[in-house]
Design a protein that fits this description.
With 71 residues, the protein is an all-alpha fold. Helices cover 48% and strands 0% of the residues. It is built from three helices and no strands.
């Protein structure tokens, strides 16, 4: 338990130093595309067509559902 407290205190000190430097939780990611626009422009293409001409995209968001079909 004492070791856990020491670890937490070390992490708090590191966070304090990061905040003092202004870099606590940087978010420098910038999206270039919207999923809806990508779907409008490429949603009707087949897998083969997309593999022949790959589309580079930069989108942001959360994955709300993942349905793995394999074991």
């Amino acid at each position: 338990m004492e070791e856990d407290n020491k670890l937490i205190e070390e992490r708090r000190e590191k966070l304090k130093a990061l905040r003092a430097a202004g870099l606590a939780y940087p978010n420098d990611f910038r999206r270039r595309d919207l999923a809806s626009r990508l779907n409008e422009s490429h949603g009707d293409k087949t897998k083969e067509a997309l593999e022949q001409t790959p589309v580079a995209a930069s989108i942001a968001g959360r994955m709300m559902l993942k349905r793995p079909m394999a074991k």
